[in-house]
Design brief:
The complex is a heterodimer. By secondary structure, chain A is an alpha/beta fold. Chain A folds into two domains: 1-81 and 165-253, P-loop containing nucleotide triphosphate hydrolases (Rossmann fold), CATH 3.40.50; 93-163, no CATH class. Chain A is built from nine helices and ten strands. Chain A has helices spanning 44-51, 74-79, 97-108, 123-132, 148-160, 178-195, 206-212, 230-235, 237-242, and strands spanning 6-15, 18-28, 33-37, 59-64, 67-68, 82-85, 166-170, 198-202, 215-220, 223-228. In chain A, the strands form two sheets. Chain A has a six-stranded mixed sheet with strand order 6-7-8-3-9-10, sandwiched between helices. In chain A, strands 2-1-4-5 form a four-stranded antiparallel sheet, with helices on one face. In chain A, helix 3 packs parallel to helix 5 (148-160). The longest helix of chain A is centred in the C-terminal third of the chain and has 18 residues, at 178-195. The radius of gyration of chain A is 18 Å and the shape is globular. Chain B is mainly alpha-helical. Chain B has two domains: 2-121 and 138-292, ABC transporter involved in vitamin B12 uptake, BtuC, CATH 1.10.3470; 344-622, ABC transporter involved in vitamin B12 uptake, BtuC (Orthogonal Bundle), CATH 1.10.3470. In chain B, 72% of the residues lie in helices and 3% in strands. In chain B, the strands form three sheets. In chain B, strands 1-2 form a two-stranded antiparallel ribbon. In chain B, strands 3-4 form a two-stranded antiparallel ribbon. A two-stranded antiparallel sheet of chain B has the order 5-6. In chain B, strand 3 and strand 4 (270-273) form a beta hairpin. In chain B, helix 13 crosses helix 22 and helix 14 packs parallel to helix 16. Chain B is globular and about 75 Å long. Mean pLDDT of chain B is 84; it is low at 304-310. Classes of the chains: A alpha/beta, B mainly alpha. Chain A binds chain B through residues 52, 54, 73-75, 78-79, 83-84, 86, 90-96, 99, 102-104, 106-108, 111-119, 142, 144-145, 158, 161-162, and chain B through 307, 309, 312-317, 483, 486-487, 489-495, 497-498, 500-502, 504-512, 515-516, 519, 523, 565, 625.
Chain lengths: 253, 625
């Protein structure tokens, strides 16, 4: 049996004595979309940041295709085939959409030259990758003037430049109009299945979670309390209790 | 041995008190307003001069000295309040870098105010009445006044701490330090408090200046000397920490005092002068702290700097068809010696050299977003290395590359530390490095010629004519400028801008931000070194001025006048700056004040510089973004 793309093993983190995350374990397989959900303060973001290299876990392991990548910095994770998007989009504001992708390509190719022409050689690849996310028309537009939904697509295109085996998305649809959310997630799901990419995302919008995730992991107060298909999780009494006051299936306040 | 060791420790503690008072004021102001006040050393200097004048009016005695200290403190407090009301108030929302430069404008302005009011000579100040003797400690004399200072520093620190923790006003100040917006939402009158805190911080610096008088005469170097020390203290102690400021002041001062106390010793058969190593000791202390705790002993890690999108200008790949003005300029530069007189050719040589210097700073500041208040360190290092190599017998064509290599190596050393910091801490670190480099050039008589510098450094016969040297400069500096411009749209430039725009996004796509920034600093350092090497051969002589902080500020001014986030900006800025300087220096001796006011106005009114502002106008006219 091959190792899962991402395996999180008993990771935990405390902040000044407060146990934000305790012994959380789960895994994501190739081509699978796994949603990590939970009420505010459940430890989703802490867990997420321990996986993407921004936080070092106090204990436990993070494995990528069986290989231990615990405490690897973000740039090492990128080279190992992990890409991510941010809750609040992070793009290079002084550059055009095409140049944003160019940076990721330069980094992929470890190009740091002083005199080489950075732009020309990669124009075809950039155009193709922008077309994939439906942003081909905006290659020369500055990122700072894009609408938020378009910026999200650009960020996705940047993340996909590396053909990652694992894509981490922190609240991919936060701040987007309801109509755009489904379109973005369909794009992600389509890409994941085509290229066999594993996708882990956190999300507040229950429509997005239950509409697009293959599996759902639920956290509460730092612990993992449920795991299963969307239908299983929806039926889980413990999950219902945690989300008491808001019926699952509606948008979470 | 033990006794002299103890005496030197006490001596260090007395110096620490003065340093602490200035650092305390800087920290208070930073805590509430988030502005690092570069002019704090100027407030210190102003305090010293005001106390001298008060003493002159009132005469000696208790009133003359202590009344003078009180008067100086209050008067500098008022100056601080006026500076806050007229200048600082307008820049609280501006990017950090611009704030630093605005306060540097105040440094230059006050420098000339002092020069105008008190003249260029050092003035001996009064000694504290009744405290002019010495007490005997372990059979060694120790000045009574220093003993008082030693106690006074912590005592004033304690009263400020009580003011902050035990009074209503202090509670509000602490609230604003924690969360400025929340404090405002709770109805705290921010405007009044900011003025008050600024005045208090200035008052402490003025008091320290007055209290420093029995130990050193009032002089024109006080401002930059103390501010460089205070920056070292702040970087070591941690920005914004009161106990950190005291502990760091003690560590730095005591280590320096020990070095002086050890004096000349023989180690392994070689004579070492520890008293000349004080600056190196300071550097080593700072380096060790930065390696172990980059955010300082008592500081907290910096949150990633937020860059507001509005402050970033795009830098599109230039359209070849639009480059014809550049070709015209190049043609004009080639024709210039045919049309112009000898004086103009020399001025043009200077402009080209400084254009390279400014372009090299523009590379790390504009593309990299890294402020440098000590870029002259590399300029001077290149100049000194070339001059020393020449004096040792190397010909021009070896000496110039030696200057470039040495400046690049120095940038490699300093840059290693610089990439660990960002924002204001980085700016303070670069200034401290530059001041240390300056002091080494100033003190190392046997190699650098000390304050006299080096003379008789001329190019070979082939280039000895002013026109020939002009063409050599145009070729070498021009090529270097073209490389810098080119690099903006090469991989290095894109990765630098990526790291500037969004560090976490850059790291998330695999960019090793520190390595990229380090490379950029080395490249910029080497380019500045080339400018320095060309400069020394064009002038024939060299003094420590070539790596002083005002020289660094010249480069900053050029970059800002032209526009920091444009490629041609620094070069245009250098030309405008040199022409203005040439004109104003002949018209008035107060060039610093003019430059200071210019800097203040630019940062407030035209933060994008000449080229940036022109480009915004053009884009607005074309209806583009």
């Amino acid at each position: 049996m091959t190792a899962p793309v991402l395996a999180v093993e008993e990771i935990g983190k405390s902040f000044k004595g407060f146990r934000a995350v305790e012994r959380v374990s789960f895994s994501v397989d190739a081509g699978e979309l796994l949603a990590l959900i939970g009420p505010n303060g459940a430890g989703k973001t802490t867990t997420f940041n321990m996986i993407n290299g921004q936080l070092a876990p106090d204990h436990g392991r993070v494995r990528l295709g069986g290989e231990d990548v615990t405490r690897s910095p973000p740039r090492a994770l990128w080279r190992a085939g992990v890409a991510r998007t941010f809750q609040i989009t992070q793009t290079f504001a002084s550059m055009s959409v095409a140049e944003n992708l160019l940076v990721a390509i330069l980094s992929r190719e470890s190009a740091t030259g002083l005199l080489a022409d950075a732009g020309r050689a990669n124009a075809d690849e950039i155009q193709a990758r922008l077309d994939e996310v439906g942003m081909g028309h905006a290659a020369d537009t500055l990122c700072s003037v894009l609408a938020y939904g378009d910026l999200k697509r650009v960020e996705l295109a940047i993340a996909l430049v590396n053909d990652p085996r694992l894509l981490l998305m922190d609240e991919p649809t936060a701040g987007m109009a309801a109509r755009e959310r489904g379109a973005l997630m369909r794009l992600v799901a389509e890409r994941a299945r085509q290229r066999n990419t594993a996708v882990l995302f956190t999300e507040h919008d229950m429509d997005v979670v239950f509409g697009h995730a293959d599996r759902v992991v639920v956290m509460n107060r730092g612990r993992l309390i449920a795991e299963g298909t969307p239908a299983e999780v929806r039926a889980n009494p413990l999950v219902r209790e945690v989300y008491l006051g808001s019926t699952i299936g509606e948008a979470n306040p | 041995m033990i006794a002299s060791f103890l005496i030197q420790t006490l001596n260090g503690l007395a110096s620490a008190s003065l340093l602490f008072l200035v650092a305390l004021g800087l920290t208070l102001i930073f805590g509430v307003t988030r502005v690092v006040n570069f002019a704090h050393g100027s407030f210190f200097m102003l305090g010293a001069y005001l106390a001298v004048s008060f003493h002159g009016f009132v005469g000696g005695g208790v009133l003359g000295f202590w009344g003078g200290a009180l008067f100086a403190a209050l008067a500098v407090g008022v100056v601080g309040a006026v500076a806050e009301l007229t200048i600082l108030r307008r820049i609280y929302r501006a990017p950090e870098l611009l704030q630093l430069i605005t306060t540097f404008g105040i440094v230059l302005l006050l420098k000339d105010v002092v020069l105008y009011t008190w003249g260029p000579e050092d003035i001996l100040g009064p000694r504290a009445p009744g405290l002019t003797g010495a007490v005997w400690i372990f059979g060694k004399p120790f000045p009574q006044y220093d003993l008082l200072l030693l106690v006074l520093g912590p005592l004033i620190g304690l009263s400020v701490w009580l003011l902050l923790t035990r009074t209503d006003w202090g509670t509000r100040v602490r609230a604003a330090t924690e969360d400025r917006d929340m404090a405002a939402a709770l109805g705290i009158n921010q405007a009044l408090m900011f003025t008050g805190v600024f005045a208090l911080g200035a008052l402490l610096a003025g008091l320290a200046g007055a209290l420093a008088l029995p130990r050193e005469p009032a002089n024109h170097n006080m401002d930059l000397t103390i501010i460089a020390d205070v920056f070292v203290v702040t970087v070591v102690g941690g920005l914004g920490s009161l106990p950190g400021a005291y502990v760091a002041a003690v560590i730095i001062s005591v280590v320096k005092a020990w070095c002086i106390g050890i004096g000349d010793v023989r180690l392994f058969g070689m004579a070492f002068s520890f008293s000349k190593l004080t600056l190196v000791a300071e550097f080593i202390v700072m380096a060790i702290v930065l390696i172990i705790r980059p955010w300082g002993l008592f500081g907290t890690p910096q949150s990633p700097q937020r860059v507001s999108a509005a402050s970033i200008l795009p830098m599109p790949v230039p359209d070849v068809k639009r480059l014809w003005p550049l070709a015209l300029v190049a043609l004009a530069l080639l024709m210039l010696p045919l049309l112009a007189d000898r004086f103009t050719v020399v001025l043009a040589t200077d402009i080209i050299i400084f254009a390279l210097f400014a372009a090299s700073l523009g590379l790390i500041m504009g593309l990299g977003g890294m402020a440098s208040f000590g870029h002259a360190a590399y300029f001077g290092a290149g100049a000194y290395a070339a001059a020393v190599a020449f004096k040792a017998g190397a010909p021009f064509f070896v000496a110039v590359p030696a200057g470039v290599a040495f400046a690049g190596a120095l940038a490699m050393l300093f840059g290693w530390f610089c990439v660990r910091l960002s924002g204001v801490s980085l700016a303070m670190l670069t200034l401290a490095f530059a001041q240390i480099t300056w002091a080494i050039a100033f003190q190392w008589d046997s190699v650098t010629g000390g304050s006299n510098g080096l003379v008789g450094i001329w190019p070979p016969d082939l280039l000895s004519g002013k026109t020939a040297y002009y063409f050599a400069t145009l070729l070498l500096a021009g090529a270097a400028i073209l490389i810098i411009w080119r690099s903006a749209h090469a991989p290095l430039g894109y990765l630098m801008r990526a790291a500037r725009d969004s560090r976490i996004r850059a790291e998330a796509v695999g960019v090793d931000v520190r390595i990229i920034q380090w490379r950029a600093i080395i490249l910029a350092g080497a380019a500045a070194g080339l400018a320095g090497a060309l400069y020394v051969f064009s002038k024939g002589s060299l003094s420590p001025d070539s790596l002083s902080i005002p020289r660094s500020v010249d480069a900053l001014a050029m970059v800002l006048i032209g526009g920091v986030q444009t490629l041609v900006g620094p070069v245009v800025g250098a030309a405008v700056f040199m022409l203005l300087q040439d004109w104003i220096v002949r018209a008035t001796p107060y060039w610093h004040a003019v430059l200071g006011i210019t800097l203040i106005l630019i940062t407030i009114i035209f933060p994008q510089g000449i080229v940036g502002t022109l480009r915004q106008w053009r884009q607005r006219r074309e209806g583009g973004p």
